[in-house]
Amino acid sequence: MKNTGLFALLVFAAMLSSCCGSRRSDGVKTTFQTSREWRPTIDNRADAAMVYGVGGNPSDNSDRIPFEERVRSWRERGYEVHFMTGIAWGEYQDYFTGAWDGVPHLDEGQVQRSGDTIWHGHMVPYIVPTDNYLEYMKQRHIKRVIDAGITHIFLEEPEFWARAGYSEAFKREWRKFYGFDWRPQHESPENTYLASKLKYHLYYNALREVCSFAKEYGRSKGLDVRCYVPTHSLVNYAQWQIVSPEASLASLPCVDGYIAQVWTGTSREPNYFDGVCRERVFETAFLEYGSMASMTAPTGRKMFFLTDPIEDWPRDWKDYKRNYQATFVAQLLYPGIADYEVMPWPERIYEGLYRTSPDSDAKERIPRHYSAQMQVMIGALHSMPRTGDRVSGSHGIAVAMSNSLMFQRFPRHDGYDDPQLANFYGLALPFVKRGVPVATVHLENLAYPEALADTKVLLMTYSNMKPQEEASHEALARWVRRGGTLVYCGRDDDPFQGVAEWWNSGDKAFAAPADHLFGLLGIGAAPAEGTYACGKGKVCVLRQDPKEFVLTQGGDARLVGSVRDLYEELCGDGALEFKNHFRLSRGMYELVSVMEESVGTEPCTVEGTLIDLFDPQLPVRASVSVAPGEQALLIDAARVTGGRPQVLAAAYRAENEKRTRNTYSYAAKAPIGTTGVSRVRLPQRPARLFVDGRAEETPDSAWDEASRTFLLTLENNPDGVEVRFEW
Fold first, then answer.
1. How confident is the model at residue 573 (pLDDT cuts 50, 70, 90)?
2. Quick one: what percent of the chain has pLDDT higher than 70?
3. Are residues 469 and 549 in the same domain?
4. Which of 174, 584, 697, 704 ranks highest by number of CB atoms within 10 Å?
5. The pLDDT of residue 20 is above 60
6. Tens-place pLDDT, residues 672-689
7. Measured between alpha carbons, how far is 602 from 146 in angstroms, rounded to an integer?
8. Closest CA to 213 of 82, 87, 80, 96
9. Closest of 129, 90, 91 to residue 109, by C-alpha
10. pLDDT per residue over 386-401, tens digit each?
């Protein structure tokens, strides 16, 4: 087929050293996206503000402020200003109505089988990214952004819906890409696979074209432009039935970094475990962040992790808080990532009205206790260190993934179903639920030596994905022969096994792609269940689709038992540890998540001099007990290094810090209308405290001797509240 070399080129690109590929630090650790101008209610004090859209955000119905004015308003408040817009949708009505080039382009929306366009909003369709549309993006949007002096461009959500693929524009792109007429994807698995690969290619090409242009135009203006892609995880896109370039973005030379768009709204998507379909927000978020971290880790490019204190769908404030804590801790369990998008849309978070309880239609703005807690958590992100420490548990078990997870999700063929991505979760959740920090490995990254460096046992199936390149099998075979253990689960009878691809084309005639891999491993095509030696390694074949491990109660026993035996044999005396929690230390921070549906119901107890950051009162405790279904974010004051005065935890950002032998002062900045609770580390109890020049009391109750911290509470102001301690 016309695109058989595409993925090989992507692998080759991954090995290139490019001036476009970023291993540089830009000094921005925290950021957020906003469609609004600066206002005192949304001044959250991150390092950078990503101003959204030349024309704004389609979901924002407020009066539109010109783009340059929005940029200027944030710069005047000391923010580095970046730009974000959608690559698959946005305020691009002038393109669709013909105002840009005199030709209407509504035929370039993504269209489903019924003939209906898939809309993101009024006159905002999801787009088939044609060459003409890409030229519009370059000339009308990218140029204007760079002309405004912005050097960091975020092109978010390159998304093509699996159910789309029936528009005239898509049919034209099909003929151009494949060289033959369009085929309806619902008619055969092969057509579905071809449609998905084209959708994938279109947005890979879109990002390559727009990012390359941005860099070239920036150079013509004397600017070093960097391009980033905010994208959902491969886990989420596959579950939501969306096709996106995903893992191949890691090797796109003109992309400098990414935002992992993981939040409550993605992570609360239900999945199956032990026969029950329900929300498992922490576990799903843990796997989502993990897939994003592993996707880009070999490249060394910058990765921001996103969390959202609320979400797109209306819930009550208690629900938002509970699930925000779950996703927040999940992201922090990856100690190699230490850059964060602290929130999207502060205007929605601080100024929106949401339900006060699940049983009431009454609504209110964010409660003071929640805004204080949220700002304390964001403050932790400003100082969260990148560490070499590892989350507790037995390491070395990973699940293989591929971009093709997105290719066979919709429509169903021949009655084969993979409910709620059960073939993926069937390999991952049985171990995550037992406290094993399962990693993910992307087949597209196997050209990098680091991709399998930390993996001892790799779990894999082709029931839900297919290998895009023969080279991935060659890499897997080398890894096994050198001592790795591969556990392959699958009946290899799903309708996509026989699509016309490299394993059954040319001189190859394998009935299933796994048979090619088994041949390289020396165990022959279609091996029976069992464990086989291969060089220094082993291959274990289980003839069950992974979904069978989670769709029934107790269905994972065979998988768990087989992996435990193989792991313990491989590791000698190292037993595979099962527990009901994850725990990680990052500098002074202690992170804990305890799971339900696990091997026990006991809480996880942490001891130390602990400041509880999930409690807006910031109490200091000697012991914190975390129950199943809950998480904890703690500071252990005993691990604070150095004796200098400092703000350990605060619902504001301390700026302009000054220290003398017996004074410590700073300006506390945070959104107006919020409470500035804080724990301030001092050499001794303060004798005097001044807030905006006024003397304040220093009661005994505010001083904690064990942590050597003073509990200070003030009324926040984005202009800054001057704080001065003396002792």
1. low
2. 96
3. yes
4. 584
5. no
6. 999 999 999 999 999 999
7. 55
8. 87
9. 129
10. 999 999 999 999 999 9
Domain with 603 in it: 581-639
Residue 68 located in a structural domain: no
In a domain, 311, yes or no: no
Higher pLDDT, 574 or 582: 582
Same domain, 474 and 610: no
pLDDT digits (tens, 9 = 90+) for 415-453: 999 999 999 999 999 999 999 999 999 999 998 888 999
Are 481 and 599 members of one domain?
no
Residue 586, helix vs strand vs coil = strand
pLDDT at 6 over 80: no
| Backbone dihedral angles phi then psi of residue 156, each to the nearest 5 degrees | -95, 155
Task: Give the CA distances from residue 646 to residues 360, 637, 666, 727, in Å, rounded to whole numbers and listed in that order.
Answer: 42, 12, 10, 14
Is residue 412 located within the same domain as residue 532?
A: yes
CATH assignment at residue 456:
3.40.50
| Tokens at 407, concatenated | 């290719």
Contact 31, 50 (CB under 8 A): yes
- pLDDT greater than 60 at residue 226: yes
Residue type, 266: T
Whether 153 maps to a domain, the answer reads no
What predicted TM-score, i.e. pTM, was given to this entire model? 0.95
Q: Rounded to an integer, what distance in angstroms lies between the CA atom of residue 462 and that of residue 427?
A: 12
Q: Which of 639, 666, 684 corresponds to the end of one domain? A: 639
* Same domain (yes/no): 553, 697: no
Q: 411 with 560, same domain?
A: yes
Per the CB < 8 A criterion, the answer to whether 645 and 664 are in contact is yes
Q: At what angle do helices 368-383 and 317-332 cross, to 10 degrees?
A: 10
Is the pLDDT assigned to residue 381 strictly greater than 50?
Answer: yes
Higher local confidence (pLDDT), 295 or 684: 684
Please check whether residue 208 lies inside any domain of the structure: no
Q: Kindly state whether residues 543 and 688 are assigned to the same domain.
A: no
DSSP calls for 601-639: -PPEEEEEEEEETTSTT--EEEEEEE-TT-EEEEEEGGG
The three state secondary structure string of 323-334 is HHHHHHHHHHCC
Number of structural domains, the chain?
3
Report, in angstroms and rounded to the nearest whole number, the Rg of the chain calculated over CA atoms.
Answer: 26
Alpha-carbon span 248 to 7, nearest angstrom:
8
